[in-house]
Amino acid sequence: MLTDGLHATRRAGRPKQFFLPKYEPDYAAAHGLDVSDFAGYVRGIVAKTATSNEVFGFKLMGWYLHEFLRRFREARSFGDEHSPDLQMLRSAFPHLQFVQMRRRNKLQQAISKARATQTGLWKIQEGNSASGKDEFDADLIAHCLEDTEREERIWSRFFEEICMRPFQVEYEELCCDYHGTIGSVLEFLNIRLPRKVRVGEPITVRQSDAVSREWEERYLAQRGPPQLVAS
Fold first, then answer.
1. Backbone phi and psi for residue 2, each to the nearest 5 degrees, phi listed first
2. What's the predicted TM-score (pTM) here?
């Protein structure tokens, strides 16, 4: 929802998972880039997908953050083995800023992931359809909850190590005040929209629904409240 909203402004980059290895061949082919040359691919995707005001954005998940950093380091084009992570990343992405999406209700986040894992439907929007059936599975939800907490710890350690505080967006707030939240991110990024440009309606629909709420009640009845581990 957030990245689609930023993309729709045509002033905040086109944030996608450009650096998830399984997607790179498709992005490289679409933009005439050589995926075997990682440094060249990085520079190329920045140049090809930045908006007209020279803003480039990308989406990154915690579960492949360390692999992402390793590949940048091994490219030897943005720093060497001793270069701090932030220095290396800013060599590739000058003026880099971080926006972190978090969700207060971690159990509902885990339920959404469990349902998406079963159905293959990670984004609910026009043209997407499920490839499987979602059925309540307390063990799968517990596993997804562990993944969610692990990813949040990964990001917490990363931001602590690079001594930066990201601009944080809460999923619940984004759902309640979509336009206001997109506006706050644009303000953080110091991006002003032309007078005639407005943030449109979200094209991605939140997955949480009556089924998710039912699953939450069933999980709590069986397993009790999640025991969150401090990062």
1. -70, -50
2. 0.88
